[in-house]
Amino acid sequence: MRSGTVIAVSRDTTHRFSKTNQDSIRLLAGLGVEGDAHLGVTVQHLSRVAQDPTQPNLRQVHLIHAELFDDLRLAGYDIAPGDLGENVTTRGIDLLGLPAGTRLRLGPDAVVEVTGLRNPCLQIDAFRGGLLKQVVGRDEHGAVVRKGGIMGVVLDGGDIRPGDTVDAELPAEPHRPLERV
To answer: Where does the MOSC domain lie (predicted)?
Structure first.
């Protein structure tokens, strides 16, 4: 599906695994989520800063589909919006099926361009033991499948609230599949 609904928005001023749910968040063009530890033109994820602090921040906004939480609940994990560090939790839109370069309109003003897949790390197992195997697996051909959401950069700023719509505008073909960023 190419449209859905925002069910939660989250941010955190410090580098913690989970983020706190908010009534609204403000996206700032070229920077990310106002008041979030990952706000910036250059990379803010600590492991990536250690590698090269000058690389562009392709992970300004993290989005996860709530359908993942439904699947995780069936596997015995009670995960809520913000728990996995996402800024925007959606329902009804196939985030993982979108091609790179898709533009997501969130609410009336904000636009985020999808840059790639989140690459969950071992911190997820510190949060809940065994969770990494639930969000990273392999398909029938042995290829890695990442289910931990998508990342994007803010093209147009604006406020986002639970209940806002999410609409996807696909880029021109040929479409590029999402890769980890």
So the answer is: 20-169
Residue 179 lies in a domain: no
Note the pTM of the prediction, 2 decimals.
Answer: 0.96
Domain region containing 21: 3-169
Tell me the residue type at 171: P
Number of structural domains found in the chain:
1
Contact in structure between 64 and 115 (CB atoms under 8 Å): no
Q: In this structure, are residues 28 and 36 in contact, taking their beta carbons and an 8 Å threshold?
A: no
CATH number at residue 163: 2.40.33.20
Per-residue pLDDT in tens (0 to 9) along the chain, 181 residues: 699 999 999 999 999 999 999 999 999 999 999 999 999 999 988 788 788 889 999 999 999 999 999 999 999 999 999 999 999 999 999 999 999 999 999 999 999 999 999 998 888 999 999 999 999 999 999 999 999 999 999 999 999 999 999 999 999 999 999 999 9
* Cis peptide bond N-terminal to 174, omega within 30: yes
Question: Does residue 26 form part of some domain?
Answer: yes
